[in-house]
Amino acid sequence: MTEYVYDFTEGGRGMADLLGSKGANLAEMTRLGLPVPRGFTITTAACRVFLSTGEPPPELERQLAEHLSALEWAAGKRLGQADDPLLVSVRSGARVSMPGMMETVLDIGLNDHSVLGLAATSGRERFAWDSYRRLVQMFGTTVMGVDPSLFEETLARVREQHHVPDDSRLDVCDLVRIVESFKDLIAERTGRRFPHPAAEQLRQAVLAVFASWNGERAKLYRHRERIPDDLGTAAVVQTMVFGNLGRDSGSGVAFTRDPATGRAGMYGDYLPSAQGEDVVSGVRNTLPLRELAELDPVSFARLRQHLDRLEDHYRDLCDVEFTIERGTLWVLQTRVGKRTAQAAFTMASDMADEGLITSRRALTRVGGEQLAQLMFPRFDTTGASDALVRGVPASPGAAVGAVVFDSAEAVRRADAGEQVVLVRNETTAADLPGMIAARAVLTARGGKTSHAAVVARGMGTVCVCGAEDMIVDTRARCLVAGGSTVVEGAVVSVDGSEGVVRLGALPLVESDVMRYFDGAAPARDGGVPDPVRPVHRLMQEADAARRLRVRANADTPQDAARARRHGAEGIGLCRTEHMFLGDRRRLVEAVVLAGGDAEREAALGALLPLQRADLAGILEAMDGLPVTIRLLDPPLHEFLPDLTDLAVRAAVREAAGEPRNPRDAARLAAVTRIHEANPMLGLRGVRLGLVVPGLLAVQVRAIAEAVAERKRAGGAPRAEIMVPLVAAVEELRLVRDEAARVLAEVSAESCVDVACPVGTMIELPRAALTAGELAREADFFSFGTNDLTQTTWGFSRDDVEGAFFPAYLERGVFQASPFEEIDRDGVGRLVRIAVAGGRAAHPGLEIGVCGEHGGDPASVRFFHEAGLDYVSCSPFRVPVARLEAGRAAVPDEAAPDR
Amino acid sequence: MTEYVYDFTEGGRGMADLLGSKGANLAEMTRLGLPVPRGFTITTAACRVFLSTGEPPPELERQLAEHLSALEWAAGKRLGQADDPLLVSVRSGARVSMPGMMETVLDIGLNDHSVLGLAATSGRERFAWDSYRRLVQMFGTTVMGVDPSLFEETLARVREQHHVPDDSRLDVCDLVRIVESFKDLIAERTGRRFPHPAAEQLRQAVLAVFASWNGERAKLYRHRERIPDDLGTAAVVQTMVFGNLGRDSGSGVAFTRDPATGRAGMYGDYLPSAQGEDVVSGVRNTLPLRELAELDPVSFARLRQHLDRLEDHYRDLCDVEFTIERGTLWVLQTRVGKRTAQAAFTMASDMADEGLITSRRALTRVGGEQLAQLMFPRFDTTGASDALVRGVPASPGAAVGAVVFDSAEAVRRADAGEQVVLVRNETTAADLPGMIAARAVLTARGGKTSHAAVVARGMGTVCVCGAEDMIVDTRARCLVAGGSTVVEGAVVSVDGSEGVVRLGALPLVESDVMRYFDGAAPARDGGVPDPVRPVHRLMQEADAARRLRVRANADTPQDAARARRHGAEGIGLCRTEHMFLGDRRRLVEAVVLAGGDAEREAALGALLPLQRADLAGILEAMDGLPVTIRLLDPPLHEFLPDLTDLAVRAAVREAAGEPRNPRDAARLAAVTRIHEANPMLGLRGVRLGLVVPGLLAVQVRAIAEAVAERKRAGGAPRAEIMVPLVAAVEELRLVRDEAARVLAEVSAESCVDVACPVGTMIELPRAALTAGELAREADFFSFGTNDLTQTTWGFSRDDVEGAFFPAYLERGVFQASPFEEIDRDGVGRLVRIAVAGGRAAHPGLEIGVCGEHGGDPASVRFFHEAGLDYVSCSPFRVPVARLEAGRAAVPDEAAPDR
């Protein structure tokens, strides 16, 4: 026969599936001998029966009665007994925390008779009636479904009649009348009476817990978080203890360490003469826990002892809720506690030092996002003004600068040494120079995956997106927000971690951790200053543990140097097109729109020395480490004037009767000719190289000459040529042939061997599907997961984010944007197909990833599992990726639920 | 020891890999006892050794000498012998036909001495010197690499000196001098002398054959056709026989049946007193073969006997080259002959009747493209003028109509009963109404996969694309081509099968086969008229053999009815968006740009009855058969005004100082707001349904109400709802839930059960990769291979075809556009993944394909192999798909090379 009820003495923390997290931890504490008020748990299995049949299992009634009898026998009093009633609480508790479910009904067992018994035995009539009032209110709301505001209105009316500011001033008579009003309210609203038999109260509360699993909010939450609908919840029944029985009673929460700093030593809050709910609600000001040592040294010492026992047992930060009832300490609940980023590092490191956990295990207690948080500077907001505007915290960190409204102005002022914040409605590739020049980017439109957000994160630039209450007037060169007009040049402080922009320059607090990674922090004697010691320790552990190598995406010598300081083991993606921006854009335009071969060759010729110099600088910064250089990739239109702009200008000239400008007319004709309806799916990547004569050769030559230059200078350049957007092996073969020709030419001209590996990006589904063929022509693979996500899902990052991602996230189609966290089922499956196909055809083939996902913690774990050799991410994310790669290499904790 | 030389008596037709197709067939004929001049074949294995080492295999010299000795012994004379020389030909012959390889050197064995012997033994001095001239010229060109035009120039000079119009008037002295000049020319150009030793001639010719495998043109051809580079070619050495030894000699080609009509009975051409090359070159007019019966009845009877033997042995049409040397018939070569479409059907049917092959085998002798050719009307071009312009034959057939230059004019004139030809530079979705109205479409730009071509083929409308010599002036409403200006309204005749447009109306010859499929051809007694009897017979065979069902893509009752007559077993794709065109476009625009809920609901309400009526008509036409209705799919911009147009118009108004038109300004603002950089990857398909309130519901309601209407009228409607562009199972689940709600509503309102299956398109890589999950929520799958090809390759049909497809086809990246023939390695792999995943999760899941590929012969075969249940194609292609599905079900012929 199925057992649907477990006494706290029967379970353990490994049984969270059946008992819920709360019930399992209560059983664990009981087993450990902690003073837990007796009780039992009705299992999730009982809930599942109820949900599927509409009735609890037939055995449940008898089992519940048996466990209740045992509880009553141990307590020496009965539930609802008139003279000295046993009271219990009923709480919901699933394996995972589930907002939207019914949580708690306290004081079950009180009714018009037993309330008098409670008054008599406790010696506190007001306490008894207040408890009864709490029960009727909670029961009416959560079990019987009456709108909670109706109870609040009744209370408010009574307070008004008596001219008292809060409930604590109401006397017994008031409370008796309130209880009556509440019972009338329930009967009127539900047509049913508040149940007086205590067993009936208990039965209804348990079934209400079960039914709440299918509440609208709970269902929506599960849908969104992809929690299976058939888990069900447990119901925990526990003997009531009271912290509100006078000065020798009270309630509190306690942590085994400080969850804010991670420092060792008990930490928490205490509220004398109060129930636990009063501590949590924050109505009254709590005392620091240490004051309990003076109020009740015995309980304090016991609490410390219990917390030590728990931390030693759970080997992690624990928090507990406790109540002292007339000098007796009870522990009501425990769990592994939440903590700040700083605390996570400090505690993990300390616990490893203390031998509580191994150093490898310590790694799993911290995360990449926590590390990233520690790397950003922060504002000191003491005395700061209110926010000017709020938006999506799209790229974390803090920056101060003068507001500018276009890219050119940003560049001009930055060149003059000013710090600027670029403000746009939204950004495009044309804003890139300005974004590079700016300290922060602020946009009125777009979310975490908009162009501004993605590019800013890639560069580690602070960004707040989608500040929808802001009106940007680029013509008047001002923005309007919160009633203020901010003109160009005004200074603002942008907090990209919080998504807040304030007027004026707030003081910045630099991150010690960032100084450490930038190499400024370690003292001359090689020591590491205290605040970053835990980070240092865990990074060393991660580097020792990880199998994945970490490279950086970098397009300039400065970025390359920084990436190297952050621990990058090479460059996984050097985008040549970023060298085609600014002034050189004109040259690229000339290549693309060239009227003839001579014109095109001249433009290409002008690009060559510029590219060579850039590349030589990067190879120097990464001397001895691999630098993967991607050939020109982006859609043509990114280098060309906008068609609509040109057409409008021409039409306006014509309307004004002005003579036709032949150059503009030619540009309009050319741009019209090569205009693409879907540039992302157009003539780009390897296609461009195979179609525009000389484009491929000039890029390969720039790489080869840079290698030759570095070798002559005594360097050890390790350039690798990467072909973008390959879909078919023939494309790769044609590029390889041409690259080989150019490399041989430069080797002959320079008398230096400039041979480079040639590999391919895997960024189209077809490349992944035909990876076996590609591997025979490729020296390496590198996944471009941005494009691969676009084509696998059939949507473009730039177009769809605002259009339907919010709705999709809300309705549970995504848990996270697939552009931020790798989509394991779709894109991930292609990655696995490509790895298997590539390695089967080319054993030992080196495979990396250079898409945005290379710096995302969950994605790094996936790439480790998929057997990649390295991830490449922005320089700023390199430490994050190192840490995550280390974590990924540590097997999952065998321990049960936390 | 490896045998590198095979006598004709040693091989057979199964050895084409080793002996090449030519050598294998010569051996086969020798085995059959046909009079084949003796000879031997040097194997492809010898060629492969030569190609990889640069030297022939060491054994070859000895083996060659042995086989030559045997040949000489049998002939009773020796190669190059001065008094009575043996002469041989050397020809190349790979397993597959390879343009660009060296083909033939005749008369090897002649030199300054043996030419005199040949003159003496043949009794014809001129013949001997002309043969020598031929050898030196051919050898010089193909073996020694001299530019052929240099020999032609020498000949022309001599003719001029002697004032003779052709070589046959040159006398022996002239020929002697010419041979001398030719030898001098060779020495001068190559620095080497024409080799006199006959064995050296043979050796050099054989190696030249081998070396020609790696000629530039041959390599390019192989690359393009994906023929492996390491096959190599064989070299065939055969005793010369001469048809140019007087009136009792001659050469010809003969077929076992008429390759033009398929009629039984020997057929061919004969040229008395001529070598084979003279027949092929067409310099002299040949006689019909039947005249040989009078000229040489014995040889004619023998030839007939040999041909009967060959056809009986090969069980297919054979053709031969033959020579009669002084009354003796020799067969020099045979192969399975090429044939016209009509001949293919007639012969396959006849051969099955004759018991030569089985009826199933007969199916494999005809193809879908051949059937399609027979279905089109043709022009009677007797006395027709020259072409006005030529272009790509993009959609076959013939049509006559008045030239119009925009969609509106096409619709206006068509509505007035006029037949029109729509002429555009290129077409877009906006031209669709005009394309539907037109009899033919002619464009100046784009190829076989341009919008015009794809849409026209889909509709079965004649189309000529990429007529680049034509200038279209839409403003002046005329086109200029070949010096003529053609104004709007002028009548032209467009031949979409040939890609030719002529001025004026040519008479049209209707296709009997098409009349047959349209149900007009069968006589009242159920008999089938003669011209279509073979088609009828093979279609019956195909229908009996095929496992794939064939449905049609149809959006109107007319198309549905036609598809049904053509044998469609349902509709696999009914596109609701085609019902949103014309006047209704305004309503869709209103839905999308609606300022509020009320405005949008009004627009949706207006669409409902229109859609319901359309759908009811289609369900009526397909009563009893499934009709799969796809919910709205295309990108938003297809329904909206063009952004650039609106912007230009607004700017011009502003420049002219005209007051702002508020409605236009609102439209511009709205279109700007939802403008997408890549609409193909934007808000479309299921996303639109999940984001625009009410859009999904109104479409489902229209379907449900149409079903109810048909059921009340006593029909048996079988509507199926298909969700487009699904990437994630949650999307499908959300749509199913909403559809179920609407279907239940309509069932309740109408008291008719309107339940419909709900299935999904598989047209994104992610859908294919997660097919297992989708299958749990889907009643059926239908592959949308157009979109799947776009996303798998990462290019959009509309954008890339002109930009790089020509280069890609030329360089061998594609064999065919992946939009025309399914890409087996990439898209095909996704299809197989999805079929496996879908059927594993949902056994018996119905799976079809409704993309353009459903009517492509090679693709139909793939879909059969991949285990699909049906293909769906345009109504016009239904017979083609039926035939191909039947062919696909017949196992490959066990017979060797043909």
Describe the protein's architecture and organization.
The structure is a homodimer of 898-residue chains. With 898 residues, chain A is of the alpha/beta class. Among the domains of chain A are: 47-55 and 67-239, Acyl-CoA Binding Protein; 250-339, ATP-grasp fold, B domain (D-amino Acid Aminotransferase, Chain A, domain 1), CATH 3.30.470.20; 377-510, Phosphohistidine domain (Glucose Oxidase, domain 1), CATH 3.50.30.10; 546-581 and 624-633 and 721-888, TIM Barrel (Alpha-Beta Barrel), CATH 3.20.20. The first copy, chain A, is 46% helix and 16% strand. Chain A is built from 35 helices and 31 strands. In chain A, the strands form 6 sheets. The first copy, chain A, has an 8-stranded mixed beta sheet with strand order 12-22-21-14-15-16-17-13. In chain A, helix 20 crosses helix 35 (878-889) and helix 24 (643-655) runs antiparallel to helix 25. The relative contact order of chain A is 0.07. The mean pLDDT of chain A is 90. The interface between A and B is large, with 59 and 59 residues.
Short summary of the structure?
With 898 residues, the first copy, chain A, is an alpha/beta fold. The interface between A and B is large, with 59 and 59 residues.
Strand content of chain A: 15-25%
Distance between the termini of chain A: 30 Å
Largest interface: A-B, 59 and 59 residues
Shape of chain A: elongated
CATH homologous superfamily heading of the domain at 546-581 and 624-633 and 721-888 in chain A: Phosphoenolpyruvate-binding domains
Order of the strands making up the biggest sheet of chain A:
12-22-21-14-15-16-17-13
The tally of beta strands of chain A, per DSSP, is 31
Mean pLDDT figure of chain A: 90
Name of the CATH first level of the domain at 546-581 and 624-633 and 721-888 in chain A: Alpha Beta
Q: Helix count of chain A?
A: 35
Overall CATH architecture of the domain at 546-581 and 624-633 and 721-888 in chain A:
Alpha-Beta Barrel
Which structural class do you get from the secondary structure elements of chain A? Answer: alpha/beta
Largest sheet of chain A, in brief, is: 8 strands, mixed
Please mark out the parts of chain A with pLDDT under 50 across 5 or more consecutive residues, or reply none.
Answer: none
**Rounded radius of gyration of chain A (Å):** 33 Å
Helix amount of chain A, in percent?
Answer: 40-55%
Q: Looking at the chains present, what oligomeric state does this protein adopt?
A: homodimer
- Provide the CATH topology of the domain at 546-581 and 624-633 and 721-888 in chain A: TIM Barrel
Enzyme class (chains A, B): transferase
Cofactor (chains A, B): Mg(2+)
Catalytic activity (chains A, B): pyruvate + phosphate + ATP = phosphoenolpyruvate + AMP + diphosphate + H(+)
Pfam families (chains A, B): PEP-utilizers (PF00391), PEP-utilizers_C (PF02896), PPDK_N (PF01326)
